[in-house]
Structures are given as structure tokens and as C-alpha cells.
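job 3f2a | input accepted
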Amino acid sequence: MVHFVYRHFTSQKETEGMNEAHPKIQPKQHFEILDGLRGVAAMMVVIFHTFEAWNGGGKDSAIRQVINHGYMAVDFFFMLSGFVVAYAYDDRWGKMSVTDFFKRRLIRLQPMVIMGTIIGALLFYPGASAHLFPKIATVPLWQVILTALIGFTLIPLPMSMDIRGWGEMHPLDGPAWSLFFEYIANIAYALGLRKASNRVLGILTALAGVFLVHLLLTGTRGDVIGGWSINALELHVGFARLLFPFMAGMLLMRLHKRIHVKNAFLWCSLLLIVSFSLPRFGDLTTLWKNGLYEAIVILFLFPVIVAMGAGDQISGKTATKLCKFSGEISYPLYITHYPLIYIYTAWVYEKKLTVQQGYVYGAVLFILAVAIAYACLKLYDEPVRRWLNRRFLVRGVTST
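job 3f2a | predicted structure (400 res):
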């Protein structure tokens, strides 16, 4: 099955927290449209995973997949992450230590990692399937608890410790694999990339682009699916997906590349939805065709979308509220929805439902996933992060 990254994962709320901790720092521009686009893509991820229950598995499953290129959301969000991380922190290292940076990232990401793992543990046994997940029925409770405790730390599990049978590094909440790579990107930024000149960063970005294109055009898949297991192939895919988008996002911010288009949120949303929804190109004998399409989207279209989103300001109360809501639930939605998908996929598989028979249930799943995400946001994530910010950032802030 395919998992994603989402929210790479810096938001404008984080820059506001920075201003609170350092009162002398002037507030920065708020990219409401980029916030809103994160939510649009997160919702597309849920829809993609819902339809994935019917792809049937096998080598040609991607060809049958509805919302076929939804997995490219991972690359888009890595690019957003590079853009916003550089925007939020590039000019603040004189007032902020590396330790303080890591605290901020942990406070932003880790509470919902823990919540997503808890939900995954609570829903682990209900997802048992005699055919799809036969391993679950034999897994003792102590092993689920141990897996959850390790999952809280984001330490990846080897395939030998997988308790579900899909070889995931985080088998209770599959999408947490992307946070593992997100942390790698943040460590690389704090320890080295932030110091790179634009020329050096441009060279590194170009090399990463070659690395990504090579995977897409010469690999055995013809797509960027993968990254969630601890083995050579999946780590290759994961780093290929991470490096170009993250550094390209940084470079876009540093070069102040903006495209000014009216109604940018609408046009950017449509571009994302269409690029995620097109059917797969080629077949199993012409994998390069699909690889070429994805290379064009990641290397050229996604930077244009980010530049358009950063180049316009949202207007109107309704549009502003929509972007705000979309951005706020994006990370909670991404990190908590997949335990529901495990159960839904097993149910569809066992009942042998057609797509037409499952539409209503899929809609219910989507609404339930959004409701759970919103509840987690308001009742858990925001209060916990406020407390952690007061406890670890507002007082005793250190400087380099």
C-alpha cells in the first residue's frame, strides 16, 4: 500500500511561536494560501488511500488506481517544508541556537506523532483480516505496546519487527515514515544546509534533481512510490523523494521567486488535484512514460504552484476561513487517518466490494477522518503545543 508524507510540516503558526519567544522579532508574512494548499493535498491523500482499497495489489495495481498520482503529495509537501523552514529560520540563527531549533520542530511535530500512534494501536486488532492482515491475529498485546512506545520516538523498526505484514517502519501508523525523513531534512538544514550559499544550494538541488530523475526513468517502478521500509530499495526511494523537493523549496524562498496570479488558491488547488488525479501513463513495458510525467510535475509544476501560492494573498472572509481550516487540520488529518484506512481496506477486501458499492462508506470514512483530525487538533495538539512552548521556549531561550 502507498503512504505519504504530509506536512512537512512547518506552518505559519510556528513563525508566530517564534515571535512570542523572541518579542523583539518582527512578525513575518503569513502565507495563507500555502497553508490552504497543505489541507487540499491532505484531503486528496485521504481520498487516494480510500480508493486504494480497490486496486487489487500486484505489479499492475498502480495502473488500476483511482486518483492515480496521489502519492506525489509527499514530494509537494517536502517542497513546502523546505520553503517555509527556510523562510521561518534562515535569518534567525543569530538569535536562536541549534538546540532551540530542534525543540521547536519536536514541539511542532511530535505530539501528533504520538497521537497517531495511539490511534493506530487502539485500532490495530479491529483491522485484522484473515486474508489481508493474517499476522495481526497472532500478535500479542505486549508487542503492540512495545511497537507503540518505539513509534512515539519515530525510531524506525526493521522489517523483522513488523507486526502487520506490510514491512512498514511504523506498522501502527504507516505515514509516520515520512516524519522520519522530515526529521532528517531538518537535521541536515540545521547542521549544514542553512549555511550553504545560494550557488552551493543550487548545485546540490540540481544534483538531487538528477538523482530523482534517474530513479524515475531507470527504476523498476516508473514512479516515486515508496520510502516506508528499512531496506536499501526503500531508503533509496525515500532519499530521492526528500532531497530535491526540500532543497528546491529552500532555493525558491531564498531567490524570492513569486508568481502573482489572481485567485491563486483556486488555480493552485486545481493544478494539484489534476496532477494527482490523472491516469497512469504507459504500462508495465513503458514505465519511463509515467516516470517522465512525474519528473515534470515534481521538478517544474510543483515549484510553480509554490511560487504562485507565495505570490498572492487570500481575500474575503469565506476564503480566509477555508484556508485557515484547511491548513490547521492538514497535519492532524494526515497523521491520524491511516489507521481507519487499514480497517477500511481489510473490510473491502474481505467483503469483495466494488467501487460503486463502497462510495457511501468511503464518504463516511472521509468525514470521520476529518472529524477525528479536528478533535485531535483542538482537544490535544493545540493545548499541548501551547504548554510545551511556554515550558521550553518562552522562558530560558538561548542564543548562539
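job 3f2a | The CA atoms of residues 218 and 288 lie 7 Å apart.
job 3f2a | closed
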